[in-house]
Design a protein that fits this description.
The chain has 159 residues and is α+β, with helices and mostly antiparallel strands. It is 25% helix and 26% strand. A hairpin with a 6-residue loop joins strand 3 and strand 4.
Amino acid sequence: MLLLFILAATLIAYFLLRDKNPTPPQPLVQPPAVTLAPRPPPTGAAWHWQDGGRHETEVVVEAAFQGVIAALAAAQGDSRAPLQAMLVPDADNRSIAVFIAATLVGYLAQEDARRLRRRLDDKDLSGQTTSCDAVLGGGGLWQGKRLMHVVRLDIAAAD
């Protein structure tokens, strides 16, 4: 008897409380995309660095950039000719972004960025975009696993 009473009370509550005119669900509004990466430089470089083709400075390449670098390497094919890299100092922090073909491929390591900023200051080019030659490497297979791609710049590693 108690079970019938609970069932009847539940049905009455359902019919009294249900929404007579339900509103259709609203689509989710996507927040605007926030670009955290610096934009490629709009103009050419103020200076082109050279170090005799040694390519001693390696770009810090995170996993997020591997696809971009793989695509650049595939477009280059078997040619290992140097590409032009644009070095863009970030005004908000002390990093220096590295672009190849107007695409962000990584950043200079902290010490390399510090060293390059000193060189920029010495040439009165503080905060300006500069360029250098770059070569792509890695990406091959080793023990059945794909190696990470690397980008090396033709900038002296030490002062």
